[in-house]
Write a structure and sequence with these properties.
By secondary structure, this protein is of the alpha+beta class. The protein folds into two domains: 166 residues, Glutaredoxin, CATH 3.40.30; 345 residues, Sandwich (Jelly Rolls). The chain has twelve helices and 31 strands. The longest helix is centred in the first third of the chain and has 16 residues. The two termini are 39 Å apart. Bound molecules: 2-acetamido-2-deoxy-beta-D-glucopyranose (7 copies). It comes from Candidula unifasciata.
Length: 556
């Protein structure tokens, strides 16, 4: 196609540059729009609305305002259909009567691919949301530039773009780019420059070396869960989390939250009433009668990944072929712990007995249990980080209480997190949200342990018809580097918190958490605040990077 050069003079907006007219705005139909809806936002002008003036808007938007925006496409529509190609009605937000469609521009937003459900067939279409912009009628004497500006803002708001009418990136867009260009990464941090060691950093935690001849040697003594604690104790000089005193809101926002940088705020929870008050005796006395839903495992591992072949009926278990084909690791399962309902006082006795060694081969955990639901009275004994009030939307407030020897396996959470330690210690190994492919993110089938109390045995028989989307298939303790070779390139960050410390764990950082009991109360107790994340991404999706959550564009 030959490209002509045209000079655009748009109302009072003097464009002092020459714009190549490359965009041909052609007629489209709903099939075209649907076909491109996972990658493009479609701005469509019904033919009936195309007066000369409206044609000029269209040309300006396509050739100038959004000329450099690869995710927005423009089209003309012969008529506005009432239905999608499959017969479902086409619903346009804010439009009730057909006559309201006269003189409107329609925006078919990008539709997110449904990554969570493997059951939907590939050719299943998700109809994108449709919104309408009403052009001012002829009688309303609105300046061309003013309408163009409103239309540009409307497209920005619905297509997730950041353009001014003149095509340049707007102020919010500049801030966003600045944030994304300055994200923290362990591989970019200063100590990454430390001289190259023969043993790669990841190998330190896993006790493995890549030898010169590229063969992989495993340490002769296999690491078991029992030696795991000792192993982490051996203190290999893994890069450590930064530690700070309670920061100011704006410092925290710029240095940590918007950079996705983990940090420990030393002693930030130490003054909480909970710190003195929440003894086992106090909890038993005041809340002992409440029923709690607890998780139990034989070895203290929570949500580990293992071969499905260890499960009794794995040969009989069948999931739909189409789902099976989409599983990247069909031979693996995420092991969900067994669970039971018990009285809270009984649970506390139970974890004391476990810690004292009176109960063997058993670990018990009250994990991510909502304080708001279970123990609303306890909320007054804790507080949100003072520098973080009203910054992001609080989604969940959880309590974590266990016998103290638990290992939460490698996964991420789609929340910004403040993890506040009350008793005991947690060694949190963190891996970059950019390391998704090195940690082999993907759907993994789930299974759940069953516990027979009269026999005191756990068994592996319950395979579930669900998948986990946040677990890594790589076992940090015994990584299979033949199968997961890219894992050897990850650089973990060691963020160890003691009672009173608060760890800020930004959304989507992978983490494995080794808990240790407090020597006083033989337990591990923490609370955490989960916030709607400032930086978000689609998952599971190895290539999806973080971006500013559109719910927080107003903060840009
Ligand atoms: C969708 O687009 C792809 C690539 O542009 C094309 O190959 C395919 O035929 C299109 N499908 C439909 C239904 O238009
Ligand atoms: C659009 O992209 C071209 C080529 O990269 C660049 O020269 C031009 O300055 C850009 N225009 C705007 C408004 O950003
Ligand atoms: C992590 O840091 C803690 C405290 O700073 C240290 O005791 C521990 O040995 C470290 N763990 C590893 C695996 O390096
Ligand atoms: C699994 O299949 C085998 C042989 O087909 C059958 O004998 C066995 O009872 C089945 N087990 C379960 C748990 O369904
Ligand atoms: C804890 O151990 C004591 C002493 O052996 C026993 O009486 C009690 O039933 C145990 N409680 C639980 C919940 O395990
Ligand atoms: C605990 O588990 C280990 C390893 O599975 C086993 O050898 C041992 O007999 C168990 N101990 C008890 C008391 O059940
Ligand atoms: C526990 O095991 C015993 C003995 O094998 C069995 O009789 C009982 O039904 C089992 N209980 C449950 C809940 O499966």
């Amino acid at each position: 196609m030959a490209s002509s050069i045209c000079l655009l003079l748009i109302g009072n907006l003097v464009l002092n540059f020459i714009v190549p007219c490359l965009t041909t705005v052609s007629f489209v139909d709903l099939r075209d729009i649907l076909n491109s809806s996972t990658s493009h936002c479609s701005v469509v002008f019904p033919e009936t609305a195309l007066t000369d003036r409206v044609q000029q808007f269209l040309r300006t938007l396509a050739d100038v305002s959004f000329a450099n925006e690869s995710t927005v496409s423009f089209g003309k529509l012969r008529e506005v259909p009432q239905n999608w190609p499959d017969g479902r009605p086409l619903h346009i937000q804010g439009i009730v009567a057909p006559e309201e469609l006269i003189n409107t521009v329609l925006i078919f937003k990008r539709s997110r691919q449904d990554r969570s459900c493997l059951l939907v067939p590939d050719d299943n279409f998700i109809s994108p949301p449709v919104v309408a912009f009403r052009l001012p009628s002829q009688e309303v004497q609105e300046e061309f530039d003013q309408t163009l500006h409103r239309l540009t803002e409307f497209i920005n708001g619905n297509c997730g773009t950041f353009r001014n009418a003149d095509g340049f990136v707007n102020l919010k867009g500049i801030h966003r780019k600045d944030i994304l260009d300055n994200l923290f990464s362990t591989s970019k941090s200063s100590s990454a420059d430390k001289s190259l060691k023969k043993c790669m950093d990841a190998s330190k935690i896993i006790n493995m070396c890549m030898l010169n001849d590229n063969t992989i040697s495993e340490s002769s003594t296999p690491i078991t869960i029992q030696t795991h604690n000792k192993y982490l104790d051996s203190g290999n000089n893994m890069e450590e989390c930064e530690r700070i005193e309670v920061p100011k809101t704006s410092n925290f926002f710029h240095e940590y939250l918007s950079r996705s940088k983990p940090v420990i705020i030393t002693g930030a929870a130490r003054h909480w009433p909970a710190f003195q008050k929440w003894t086992n005796a106090f909890l038993k006395q005041n809340y002992g009668d409440r029923k709690v839903h607890i998780k139990i495992t034989p070895d203290g591992q929570y949500e580990g990944v293992e071969p499905i072949s260890l499960w009794k009926n794995h040969q009989n278990f069948s999931i739909p072929e189409s789902v099976y084909r989409k599983l990247p690791y069909p031979d693996l399962v995420v092991v969900r712990p067994a669970s039971m309902e018990i009285r809270f006082s009984e649970f506390i006795d139970f974890i004391e007995n476990i810690s004292l060694g009176l109960v063997k081969n058993m670990s018990a955990y009250l994990e991510y249990s909502s304080i708001t639901n279970y123990f609303p009275e306890l909320i007054e004994d804790i507080e949100e980080m003072p520098f973080f009030r009203n910054v992001l939307e609080l989604k969940h407030l959880n309590i974590w209480l266990s016998d103290g020897n638990t290992l939460g396996k490698l996964h991420f959470d789609p929340f910004d997190n403040f993890l506040c330690q009350i008793s005991g210690e947690k060694q949190v190994l963190l891996f970059d949200p950019h390391d998704n492919s090195r940690l082999y993110e993907g759907h993994i089938q789930e299974a759940m342990l069953t516990y027979n109390a009269s026999e005191n045995v756990f068994s592996r028989e319950k395979l579930l018809e669900s998948t986990s989307m946040v677990m890594s298939p790589v076992d940090l303790l015994h990584p299979d580097l033949q199968r997961f070779p890219k894992f050897s390139q990850v650089r973990p960050l060691n963020c160890t918190i003691q009672a009173g410390d608060v760890l800020f764990m930004p959304s989507f950082w992978w983490h494995e958490v080794q808990s240790r009991p407090s020597s006083l109360e033989h337990r591990n107790l923490a609370v955490n605040f989960w916030y709607e994340p400032f930086l978000a991404r689609e998952f599971p999706c190895q290539e999806c990077g973080l971006d500013v959550n559109s719910r927080y564009f107003h903060l840009l």
